[in-house]
Amino acid sequence: MSGKPEAAWWLALLRAPGVGPRRFLGFLGEYGEPQAVFADRGLRTRVSPPLADWLREPDWRAVEADIEWLQADARHSLITLGDHRYPPLLKQLADPPPVLFLVGDADLLAMPQLAVVGSRNPSRQGSENAFAFARDLAGRGLGVVSGLALGVDAAAHRGALAADGATVAVLGTGPDRIYPASHRDLGHEIAERGLLVSEFTPGTGARRENFPRRNRVISGLSLGCLVVEAAVRSGSLITARLAVEQGREVFAIPGSIHNPLAKGCNELIRQGAKLVETADHILEELGGLLGERRERTGTGGAIRGATKAENPQIEPEYRALLDQIDYEPTSVDYLVERCGLTPGAVSSMLLVLELQGYVESVSGGRYQRRP
User: Fold this and answer.
1) Which pLDDT tens digit goes with each residue over 284-328?
2) 128-185 per-position pLDDT tens digit
3) Residue 247, domain member (yes or no)
4) 275 and 155 together in one domain
5) Residue 180, preceding bond cis, omega within 30 degrees?
6) 160 shares its domain with 275
7) Is 81 part of a structural domain of the chain?
8) Do 246 and 140 share a structural domain?
9) Phi, psi (5° rounding) for residue 221?
10) Which among 107, 224, 239, 270 has most CB atoms closer than 10 A?
11) CATH code at 341?
């Protein structure tokens, strides 16, 4: 059984039927290295027939295909639990991935990271918050980890890239598959400028059971987890729960009680998550965990938009109207009542404010302030 590279034995055990991360870890604890597992003939009498057959004769063609993928591009690499480069935080999990397939800059795994997650169908403000927080945090030396999903995940990755900062996308597929397909270009950009991470072998497609495993890696790589916008039953709350179980900090951006996409974040805050309104709040909470990577530049990614002091040029009557518009949908009737103006005057002024970028129209003929 000699003559094969060490990586081949790790990959062979990774592909073994019935061997998940916990059982793999158990084998390592008992045998020290994967090759010794295959060498123990007595073990084959104590495991299931499919696993015994595999230990007797693994599918070396599949393993060779994995190795061919690794050798096909200089950006492809493999890190095992026995590698000194394996992320220490991730290794602390009860079920750490035995193997990580990487595409991109593997050194980014040594950086302090923050997970940024949220709804796949966020509001416009939710997307802008995710982008702004990620851009600010990445620009100040904190890596941004997310899952390359639609919505908040994609906005977070793009925000980090916009700051020319570090971003890590954890995949629920093999390292050679980008899911969803609409994020193929974003995935390739992250591979060029950041890092793609997967615990699944090349060729693995998008399977429902893979994504909870992906979520534990997202939180496991990170010092903390920021939930930007999430409904009560959002998958993002699963990541937040995993972060709590892993001893990570959980942060949440509060939202309107009328916004269903804010209910998950508000619930997290009631349960003890840290309420944050700027990136500074996160950096202050993480404190010394960031070490020298924490940079004191900028003012933080604020949720709320311009204040009176920031926009002194706006005319007083428009300012009076703007002051009555919240960051949640506000009806024209409410504004007429509050400002004592005619509906026509309010509508005309709202159009001007919208053109100037202070407000935006939403469904039902209502308006809300822009972040």
Assistant:
1) 888 766 653 334 323 333 332 333 333 445 778 888 899 888 878
2) 999 999 999 999 999 999 999 999 999 999 999 999 999 999 999 999 999 999 999 9
3) yes
4) yes
5) yes
6) yes
7) no
8) yes
9) -80, -15
10) 239
11) 1.10.10.10
d(CA 242, CA 256): 25
Judgement on whether residues 61 and 116 belong to the same structural domain of the protein: no
Tokens of 59: 């599918």
Domain that holds residue 4: 1-72
Alpha carbon distance 139, 141 (integer Å): 6
Residue 305 placed within a domain: no
pTM beyond 0.85: no
Q: In whole angstroms, what separates CA 298 from the centre of its chain?
A: 23
Eight-class DSSP state of 330: B
Beta strands in the chain (DSSP E): 76-80, 99-104, 113-117, 143-146, 167-170, 195-198, 224-227, 249-252, 274-275, 359-362, 366-369
| Apex 234 CA angle, 147 and 153, nearest 5 | 25
What single letter denotes the amino acid at residue 239?
T
Distance CA 80, CA 87 (A): 10
Dihedral sign, Cα of residue 280, residue 284, residue 285, residue 287: positive
In a domain, 212, yes or no: yes
E-only strand ranges, 76-219: 76-80, 99-104, 113-117, 143-146, 167-170, 195-198
**Cα dihedral: 150, 69, 87, 117 (round 10):** 0
Instruction: Give CA–CA dist 95/78, Å, rounded.
Output: 18
